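Chapter review: from sequence to fold.
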Amino acid sequence: MPGLTGAVLADQIAQRYPGLPVAPLTGNAGIPPLEPASGVPVSRKPLGPAELAARLRELAAATTDT
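The C-alpha cell string follows.
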C-alpha cells in the first residue's frame, strides 16, 4: 500500500471501528513488521491454511459482543 503501512491501517481501523477484529498480514519478508499501537499482531506471508485458521480463531475468541 503506497504511503501506508499495515500497522498504520490496523490502527486507523481500530480507531474508527472499535471492536472490529483485524488480522494484518505483511508480504515484506525483508523488514520486521511493526506492531500496531492497537496491539494487533501482524502475521507474515505466506501464511498457510492452518496458520490462518488459528489466527482467525484467536480473533474470534478475543472478540466480545458490545
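Two observations follow directly from the output. Residues 49-62 form the longest helix (14 residues). The mean pLDDT is 78.
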